[in-house]
Amino acid sequence: MRRGKLDSLGVSAFCESMAMMVQSGIQMDEAVALLRSSSGHTGPLEDGLVIMQAETEAGKGLAVAMEATGIFPEYAIHMVSAGESAGRLEDVLFQLARYYEDQKNIRNKLKNAVIYPVAMLGITIIVLIIMLAMVLPAFTDVYNSLTGSLTASSYAYVNWAYMLCWVALIVMLVLAVTLVLGFVLWNSKKRNIVESILHKFSFSGSILESFGMFRFTAALSTFLASGQMQDIAVTESRKMTSCKPVEEKVERCQGRMGEGHGIAQAAYDEGLFEPVYGRMLLAGERSGSLEAVLRKLTGLLADHCTELVDRLVGIVDPLLSGVLMVAVGLSLLSVMLPLIGMMNSIG
After folding, report:
1. What are the pLDDT digits (tens) for 135-155?
2. How far apart are CA 289 and CA 282, in angstroms?
3. What would the pLDDT profile of 105-136 be if each residue is shown by its tens digit?
4. Distance of alpha carbon 286 from alpha carbon 309, whole angstroms
5. Which residue from 41, 94, 202, 215 lies 20 to 30 Å from 170 (Cα-Cα)?
6. Model confidence pLDDT, tens digit, residues 247-272
7. Which whole number is the average pLDDT over 94-110?
8. C-alpha–C-alpha distance, residues 265 and 290, integer Å
9. Angle between helix 263-270 and helix 230-238 axes, rounded to 10 deg
10. What is the Cα–Cα distance from 293 to 285, expressed in whole angstroms?
11. CA distances from 185 to 21, 106, 188, 227 (A)
C-alpha cells in the first residue's frame, strides 16, 4: 500500500523526539517502541513506526529503518546515516529537527503571504466583471429612459468608464493567468524557467537567493554536525540550494577551498554571505565554534527570508487594493457625472 510522505513539521517532530530519547541513552528499538506507544493517532508516521520497530528490533540502524518506511525525505535519511557512521546521531537529529521546523515556518509564511494577494486578485476580477455586466449597463438604461438617447458628452463619460474597466480587467486576467502558469511550471520539471524569469527582477531574485542561502547554510550546518569533512559537506550542501546564482557562488568557494582555504575564509573572500555574516563565520572557524555559528546563521537567514516575504506582501497588497479602488471609483464617477449634469439642468 502506498504511504504518504511526512510533511516538514512531522519530520521535525520525529527527529526531535528521537534526539531527546537518544540523548537520554535509550536504545534505538526501545525509542521507536516508545514513540509508537505514545502516538494515539493514525497516519503515515504511525504506519511507518510499525515498520521501523520491526527493523530496529532486527538490529538495523535508524537510517535503514527510516528508508524502509518510504515516508521520510532522502535528505533526512542521508543525514541520519552519516550521523550514525560518525557517532553523532544526537547532534544530527537535533539539527534536522531545527532545519525542517524552519522549512515549515517559511513555507507557511509564503503560503499565507500568497493567499491574501490571490484572494484580492480574484475579488478585483469579480468586481470588474460585475461592473461591466450589470452596473454600467444599468446606468446606460437609466440614461436612455430619462433622455431617450444619450447625449454626446454622456456617451463619452460612459465609454470612458467601460474602457477603464475593460483595461483593468484585462490586466488582472493576464496577471491571474501568469500566476497560474507560473505555479504549474514551478511544480514541474520546468521550474528553472520560472526561476530565470524571477531572477531578472531584483526584488524577487533577492528573495530566491535568500532562500537558497538559507537552505545551503542549514544543510552545511547539518552535514558538519554529522562529522563530514568540510569539502564534502560543501559539495553535498550545494545540491540543496535549488538556486543557480547561489550554486555558482558556492562553486567559486569550492575553488578557493581547493587552494587550501577553509570554508569561512573562502565564503568571506567570494562574498557568499553578507559581510557581517562572513565575519561571524570567520570568527567561528578561528575559535573552533564553526558549527554553533552556522546554527546561529541559519536562524538569522530564516528570519531574513521571512522579512523579505513580509516586505513583498506589503507592496503587493496595497497595489492590488489600489487598482480595485481606482478602477471602480473612476468608473462610478464617470457614469455619475452625466446624471449630475442632468439634475443640475433640471434644477
Report:
1. 778 777 766 666 554 455 555
2. 10
3. 877 777 776 777 788 788 888 888 888 888 77
4. 34
5. 202
6. 888 888 888 888 888 888 888 888 88
7. 81
8. 12
9. 50
10. 8
11. 42, 21, 5, 37
- Contact indicator for 8, 107 with CB cutoff of 8 Å: yes
Residue for cell digits 461592473?
131
Predicted structure pTM score: 0.71
**Residue closest to 22 by CA, chosen among 125, 123, 112, 94:** 94
Rounded CA separation 167/192 (Å): 31
Burial environment of residue 334 by CB neighbours within 10 A (0 to 12, 13 to 18, 19 or more): buried
Scored b (16 or more CB within 10 A) or e, 287-324 reads: eeebbebbbbbbebbbebbbebbeebbeebeeebeebb
Q: How far is CA 118 from CA 108, 128, 169, in A?
A: 15, 15, 15
Q: How far apart are CA 243 and CA 192, in angstroms?
A: 9
Phi and psi, residue 96, nearest 5°: -65, -40
Determine phi and psi for 345, rounding to 5 degrees. -70, -35
What is the identity of the amino acid at 270? E
Q: Using CA atoms, how far apart are residues 201 and 344, in angstroms rounded to an integer?
A: 51
The three-class DSSP label of residue 342 is helix
Cell 449630475 identifies what position? 340
Grid cell 529503518 in the structure block, residue: 65
Which of 242, 243, 224, 221 lies closest to 232, judged by CA? 224
To which residue does cell 464617477 refer?
333
pLDDT for 2 beyond 50 = no
Read off the pLDDT of each residue in 179-196 and give the average, rounded to a whole number: 76
Query: Does residue 233 contact residue 223 with C-beta atoms inside 8 Å?
Result: yes
For residues 108 and 114, what is the distance between their CA atoms, to the nearest angstrom?
10
